[in-house]
């Protein structure tokens, strides 16, 4: 009976926003969820999104069901954005017949289907692993985004952790990471954050990515990328996709989940994709058919609105270039508060503590190194809401609040 159902704990990330709403203190600050805010700490709808929506209204687009795999125009542009338009794996093969090139068949080596943003796309990939790789293990970084574990648990896919964060250097434990990937059973799935690692903000260097790819290839593992911040970490769509492209260029099979929540600010539209790169076009066709089969009983077919926005923005040169400017603006604002927070901490801290790790981290977040008790102090005493792993979302910080936040962090460190 329902009577026997126990109370679930609040979500470690989304639950923070609920607690923030209930607080009435005037200095309260929500640095929990990774959602971009303006300098006035208000949500931001991108101008290109409004323009795309106007275009959609003018056209009078209908609300018919999408196919199970989603909007074709979206699936095309999302794969192009990820892999690069000239990438061999998404180009149609041309066969030379006499003097003219004839496109004989579509030889996409990637199965791309629209997903319910990052989470829904990861969940679909997890279902594919559960069904077609029984007993396979997924290795996730320690730490990782809180929802990764939920996703694999619910899909009944085994997971274990590889070392990633080194608290002594507040940097990457590269040797630990490599050793753990080497020690995993051959043919494991290795979950990697394409850029702007969540929650640490610490990414491997391009040289380290090469070594990671070497080890994954040697072990016959399958890389599984979570790309939630393309364009948002560095401000460049290409730079932020370089890790994925490096693996794809080696001809490896891989899984890549994408989200447009952050880079297009489409949080509530739940728009993203899962891309499965296969070694042949034939395999990609079969994988796609199975992804559709998995999606149908889960949610039938995906929502259209966000997919149309993405297709309109990416597919229209004018809007595309405007989008890149807006993304740079958002990434730039985050970089500037990162710098200001760092300066405030250096000025206020009297013990000579080195805060330079804040500047080395990239993306929306900073991993402060605050433990649970210290994070509790941030919230209970200073009304600064954050996740209990010590992560703060700099996207929710304004210049005006940097000094206050620095006071809160210093007080909590010495607590
Ligand atoms: C975050 O990490 O804050 C975001 O990705 C939001 C979420 O769904 O957890």
Automatic annotation (TrEMBL):
<dbReference type="InterPro" id="IPR015422">
    <property type="entry name" value="PyrdxlP-dep_Trfase_small"/>
</dbReference>
<keyword id="KW-0032">Aminotransferase</keyword>
<dbReference type="GO" id="GO:0006520">
    <property type="term" value="P:amino acid metabolic process"/>
</dbReference>
<dbReference type="InterPro" id="IPR015421">
    <property type="entry name" value="PyrdxlP-dep_Trfase_major"/>
</dbReference>
<dbReference type="Pfam" id="PF00155">
    <property type="entry name" value="Aminotran_1_2"/>
</dbReference>
<dbReference type="GO" id="GO:0030170">
    <property type="term" value="F:pyridoxal phosphate binding"/>
</dbReference>
<dbReference type="GO" id="GO:0004069">
    <property type="term" value="F:L-aspartate:2-oxoglutarate aminotransferase activity"/>
</dbReference>
<dbReference type="InterPro" id="IPR000796">
    <property type="entry name" value="Asp_trans"/>
</dbReference>
<dbReference type="InterPro" id="IPR004838">
    <property type="entry name" value="NHTrfase_class1_PyrdxlP-BS"/>
</dbReference>
<protein>
    <recommendedName>
        <fullName>Aspartate aminotransferase</fullName>
        <ecNumber>2.6.1.1</ecNumber>
    </recommendedName>
</protein>
<keyword id="KW-0663">Pyridoxal phosphate</keyword>
<keyword id="KW-0808">Transferase</keyword>
<comment type="subunit">
    <text>Homodimer.</text>
</comment>
<feature type="domain" description="Aminotransferase class I/classII large">
    <location>
        <begin position="27"/>
        <end position="409"/>
    </location>
</feature>
<dbReference type="InterPro" id="IPR004839">
    <property type="entry name" value="Aminotransferase_I/II_large"/>
</dbReference>
<dbReference type="InterPro" id="IPR015424">
    <property type="entry name" value="PyrdxlP-dep_Trfase"/>
</dbReference>
<comment type="similarity">
    <text>Belongs to the class-I pyridoxal-phosphate-dependent aminotransferase family.</text>
</comment>
């Amino acid at each position: 009976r329902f009577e026997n159902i126990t109370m679930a704990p609040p979500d470690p990330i989304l639950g923070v926003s609920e607690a923030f709403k209930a607080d009435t203190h005037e200095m309260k600050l929500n640095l929990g969820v990774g959602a971009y805010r303006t300098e006035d700490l208000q949500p931001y709808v991108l101008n290109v999104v409004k323009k795309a929506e106007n275009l959609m209204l003018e056209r009078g687009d209908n609300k018919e069901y999408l196919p199970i795999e989603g909007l074709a125009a979206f699936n095309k542009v999302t794969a192009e954005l990820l892999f690069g338009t000239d990438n061999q794996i998404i180009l149609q093969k041309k066969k030379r017949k006499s003097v003219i090139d004839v496109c004989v068949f579509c030889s996409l080596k990637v199965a791309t289907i629209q997903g319910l943003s990052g989470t829904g796309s990861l969940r679909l990939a997890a279902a594919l692993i559960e069904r077609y790789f029984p007993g396979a293990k997924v290795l996730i970084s320690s730490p990782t985004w809180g929802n990764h574990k939920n996703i694999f648990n619910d899909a009944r896919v085994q997971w274990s952790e590889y070392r990633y964060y080194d608290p002594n250097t507040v940097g990457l434990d590269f040797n630990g990471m490599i050793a753990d990937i080497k020690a995993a059973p051959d043919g494991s799935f290795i979950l990697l954050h394409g850029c702007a690692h969540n929650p640490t903000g610490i990414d491997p260097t391009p040289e380290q990515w090469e070594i990671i790819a070497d080890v994954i290839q040697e072990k016959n593992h399958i890389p599984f990328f979570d790309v939630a911040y393309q364009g948002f970490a560095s401000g460049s769509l290409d730079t932020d996709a370089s890790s994925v492209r490096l693996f794809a260029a080696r001809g490896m099979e891989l899984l890549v989940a994408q989200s447009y929540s952050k880079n297009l600010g489409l949080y509530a539209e739940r728009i993203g994709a899962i891309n499965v790169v296969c070694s042949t076009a034939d395999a990609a066709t079969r994988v796609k058919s199975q992804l559709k089969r998995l999606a149908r009983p889960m949610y039938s077919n995906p929502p259209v609105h966000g997919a149309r926005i993405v297709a309109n923005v990416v597919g229209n040169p004018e809007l595309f270039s405007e989008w890149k400017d807006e993304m740079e603006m958002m990434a730039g604002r985050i970089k500037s508060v990162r710098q200001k927070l760092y300066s405030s901490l250096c000025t206020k801290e009297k013990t000579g503590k080195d805060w330079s790790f804040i500047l080395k981290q990239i993306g929306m977040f900073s991993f402060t190194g605050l433990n649970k008790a210290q994070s509790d102090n941030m919230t209970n005493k200073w009304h600064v809401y954050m996740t209990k792993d010590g992560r703060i979302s700099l996207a929710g910080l304004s210049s005006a609040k940097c000094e206050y936040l620095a006071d809160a962090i210093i007080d909590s460190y010495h607590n």
